[in-house]
Design brief:
5 helices, alpha+beta, 22% helix
Length: 171
Amino acid sequence: MDMTICPCRKSASAQLSYAECCQPYIEGRAQAPSPEALMRARYSAFAVGAIDYLVDTVAPEARTDMERGSLEAWSKESQWHGLDIVETVDGKPGDKMGIVEFTAHFSRAGKREAHYERSSFRFDEAGQRWYFVEGGKPKGKTIVKGAQVGRNDPCTCGSGKKFKKCCGAAA
């Protein structure tokens, strides 16, 4: 694997080497200073097969349903193409929680895929480090098309009745 560019930076415009980006975190020489840095290091850990790091950076209370074998298989059976950070929320010095929304790009069995997730992280003050807590699909955003009819507005069908007593009654 080419380590001149960090695995987490392959799809980014600001490319850093593995040695100056994620390697110090994965090898335990430094702690990730933010949820985004931890997310990047976790992605790179998948790419380099550092399964112990993946396990160690999950919050202890969230490790109960972890399957090390699944992590190892996903890591080994995939080619890793880069990580796109979509959004970060909180996770600055002094914050107790943080969120990172991202897209991880990889190929598995020759098929190019993307894993899109919104992950939450918490800061452990005792250990002075960030932990991954959980991840999931981002909730869809509500789409509102134009002005909406209120239940007490006149019905849009022109009957002269209130919407709630006419076409809105079926809803």
